[in-house]
């Protein structure tokens, strides 16, 4: 944490300080043709009032303070900033290098935040498309990959963008884990290894300090959630077995075929961070997110960036809508569901009093492919404005 | 004639076999919808009249002759069928990354008309695809424009063979840095084209020599008859030398096809992602004067003016990284605004899906929509998946827009093409209904 701070302070790539100057009193009023609050329905021809980076009020007939900066979005749609609920955004300068410490299969003590570059180009690309927050996760090549984090894509110093340094622990029961030159080499071996580690985490005491087991002990105490990468039916089943056996507070990530065991997921109240939904999938696969949501599974979207661009969580949502997901559910998946799954719904995911002013203005319905992002606001600051031609 | 027939058409034939036969001309009128002809302004409450597979008339006051089958498109949108100019549909193995092709490899020799999922692509309104051999290195081979007409033999899928010859510049084979491969690709391609020039020179000289030989042979014969024995001695001395039939140089199919490229009879499509490769492709086109199509052109936005100045068309793609297998080094500077920037700078820009497999082509309209979201003009984006690719690949006389005389490859949608809620309800290819949406249960 300290190291990052120092790095950032000396970084020449910081945005100008003035952009981030503490500006507690700044008031913005967005006159919107349509406000998709997500938590409280849709308001036509309303106003969003922002003060000091927070949403002060939202409604139809609000008094606009005289000193407010007014943004005219009266023909446009305002939505909460999108949340990429499972991403490797900005985790490496080179998209091709490894983000997993695969020499060591259990790496619970590793923190993904230590590899995060808040100035990476990929962040600006994501912001331009309306993504304002990302859950950063280790990859899926270790049974225990390390600790996830939650960041805003505003850049600047960590006190601006760091929401959670440890948001949970990434586990993986996906085929990617299996390697021929280190354990585990087989699926049963993988599950056995995870069980052994979780068993020993149950009886962990600080007297025998071990950083990895210490983190896993918080997992089995339900103090932090597990994000379990699982794609195929058997992987998702293995994941739900593990989750119920150790009573983990858990989320499935990836979840390609999770709909095949949807009853179990509903019964165990396990949400799914789905995707990315890829554009070469078969029709039946494109219907899976709709099936999950339809059965009552809480759904959010993963870009798995850089596998797809973080902006493509919207592409996933659009496709899911084409294949049966309701627009309301899709919008929730991009915003409030993601915030709830990640445990930050008190700050993000909806447009209501007291929430962070992370807002995106679209020229039309965000779930139509051709709709454009006009303005992106993070913590009450305009971080992107589309150039008009 | 295609094998796939609509249920309704079949029904009509069953009910009125004699009428259908006696009428001679088979007419269909698609009535009452908003027509987006692409080549001209939208027409509300218009009619498209089709006769024998061709578009006969498009407009607001088209007189529909009696006996025409009517398709009610009231409240719907009528568009030309969509085209993905970056498809690998009908290819059995869409992506053998380590394969090097040959100039004379013809994609039409490897098509599988029964490939799984092609109907899903058709159901999204895609009526044509351009498919090239998928080799990632060197010259990949000869590409073709195919129709999704349900034909059961590869030959019948083909709308235009040899639409382009495809080559690659600087495409990495193993997802590692491709700097050295880039030099090699460029040098190899240039060398091959120089060899082709020499081959064509030999061929032309032979043709000239042969023509001269035939001429002289004829003349000598005449002279012999005319002059009698006057110059008998001289002729005898000359004859064996002058009238030797020229040796025919060996024919080589690879150089034959590239010769057509150098003669500008077939465009050379060069897949180039990064700026250096794009500039190298432009340089080659200038040196050898072939007609160039830039494919992918991932970093084209960085050199859009250069491309526009040389009037080189681009098949840009993929718009979204969701289409492709990323990360690849080629996509390191991928920018979804690419197609929009190219188009705004005056480059003739088609949008390809650039997908990993053939099924990706079904999202060509989504790709165009995403290009709009990232700044492309809406009309340009619709054109980029209909008329523009048809123009670039030399089939605009047949498909790409709703104009009289063109093939009746038509899509009827429930709403505007870029709205997520819009559904394709009917697809016609050459006037045959090849897809009709089943009413939802």
Summarize the structure.
By secondary structure, chain A is of the alpha/beta class. Chain A has helices at residues 2-10, 121-128, 158-161, 187-202, 211-220, 233-245, 262-267, 283-286, 288-295, 312-322, 327-334, 336-342; strands at 27-36, 42-51, 54-59, 69-80, 82-87, 131-136, 144-152, 162-172, 226-230, 250-254, 272-274, 299-301, 359-362, 373-378, 381-385.
Report the structural category of chain A: alpha/beta
- By CATH reckoning, the class of the largest domain in chain A would read Alpha Beta
CATH topology of the largest domain in chain A: TIM Barrel
At the fourth CATH level, what is the homologous superfamily of the largest domain in chain B? Metal-dependent hydrolases
Point out poorly predicted stretches of chain B.
Answer: 1-23
Q: Give the count of helical stretches of chain B.
A: 13
Strand element count of chain A? 15
Largest sheet of chain B: 8 strands, mixed
What share of the residues of chain A lie within helices? 25-40%
- The Cα radius of gyration of chain A reads 21 Å
Oligomeric composition of the shown chains: heterodimer
Spell out the key features of this protein.
heterodimer; A: 389 residues; alpha/beta; Urease, subunit C, domain 1; TIM Barrel; 8-stranded mixed β-sheet; 7-stranded mixed β-sheet; disordered N terminus; B: 441 residues; 13 helices; 16 strands; 22% strand; globular
Descriptive account of the structure:
The complex is a heterodimer of chains A (389) and B (441). Chain A folds into two domains: 15-79 and 351-385, Urease, subunit C, domain 1; 82-342, Alpha-Beta Barrel (TIM Barrel), CATH 3.20.20. Helices cover 27% and strands 26% of the residues of chain A. Chain A contains twelve helices and 15 strands. Chain A has helices at residues 2-10, 121-128, 158-161, 187-202, 211-220, 233-245, 262-267, 283-286, 288-295, 312-322, 327-334, 336-342; strands at residues 27-36, 42-51, 54-59, 69-80, 82-87, 131-136, 144-152, 162-172, 226-230, 250-254, 272-274, 299-301, 359-362, 373-378, 381-385. In chain A, the strands form two sheets. In chain A, strands 5-6-7-8-9-10-11-12 form an eight-stranded mixed sheet, with helices on both faces. The longest helix of chain A is centred in the middle third of the chain and has 16 residues, at 187-202. Chain B is an alpha/beta fold. Chain B is 33% helix and 22% strand. Chain B has 13 helices and 16 strands. In chain B, the strands form two sheets. In chain B, strands 1, 2, 3, 4, 5, 14, 15 and 16 form an eight-stranded mixed sheet that branches. Chain B has an eight-stranded mixed sheet with strand order 6-7-8-9-10-11-12-13. In chain B, strand 12 (314-316), helix 10 (338-344) and strand 13 form a beta-alpha-beta unit. In chain B, helix 5 (179-227) runs parallel beside helix 8 (275-288). Chain B is globular and about 75 Å long. Classes of the chains: A alpha/beta (389), B alpha/beta (441). The interface between A and B is large, with 34 and 38 residues.
